[in-house]
Amino acid sequence: MICLGIESTAHTFGVGIMENEEVLANITDMYIPSGGGIHPREAAEHHSRVCGNVLEEALEEADIERSDIDLVAFSKGPGLPPCLRTGAVFARSLALSLNAPIVGVNHCIAHIEIGKLKTGAVDPVTLYVSGGNTQVIALSAGKYRVFGEVLDTPVGNALDKFGREAGLEHPGGPKVEKLAKEGSKYIELPYTVKGMDMSFSGLMTEAVRKLKDERLVDVCHSLQETMFAMLTEAVERAMAHADKDEVLLTGGVAANKRLQKMLETMCEERDADFYTVPHELAGDNGAMMAWLGILKYRASGEDKLEETNFIQNWRTDDVEVEWNK
Ligand code: AMP
Ligand code: MG
Known about the structure:
This protein is of the alpha/beta class and 325 residues long. The chain contains ten helices and twelve strands.
């Protein structure tokens, strides 16, 4: 079965094509904010501008015709409403013109399923860390439960905001990682873990304040050490709680080598397995929507067209995970 998947929840518009377990194409085009954070309407305008070209490029890369597509999948939520609407409309018109079935899938769960497929993880605690999300998720009683999440600013966003204040280019995350390697002094910063939930806003504000008296490289080092220790603690607690012995790291922040190392060390100490999703499939992309589309379609068939409206705050644990039975 060949499934074409569409991603449009936030800054990335992506089209991925999967033939069963194999990625045939995975093309993305990212909206870069003109200044400050992401403007939902501008992002949606970006998506409608590039969608045609991204589709053509994906078909060419996969070396298939439109008529070869057996199924259309799209990100139904959670995300920014104007962006979600653009993706849903594009998916619907494509499915109608091809006379192909359509399925709407959950963005967070798509990250997990493509990660499992590509790493071989079977039943992990997933740490999903991106610009817009920070969640600790594991399968329990038939649903992906969110064991812990950020209470305010997600990790990637916090790193990007700090970067802006420190005069670094957007996105700040990779620049902070690079600078942190040259830092060595640990500066005490607020460490806030409540159960398995985390807060990064106070930490970020305090790090910005420290820039007045401390070296940027030391602040970057301390910011990473504090943030990633918090994440590692939350993941470890979730593993004990849910009785899991695998960790899957995904989302754009998964690229960070220091975060990978801290989680890996924790896993070694617990005799658990650690997996990082390959970079090209860890950020937002269409291939993951296509793969979850295939899983969902195989388990429960297509969606009715009138059920293809987006769901802005679609919670991970609202989804019945039929394909894992
Ligand atoms: P996503 O929202 O999944 O597309 O991921 C984008 C986010 O990942 C941005 O906030 C980036 O700053 C962050 N990011 C990318 N690479 C790194 C890195 N090496 N270290 C930390 N954060 C990163
Ligand atoms: Mg994402």
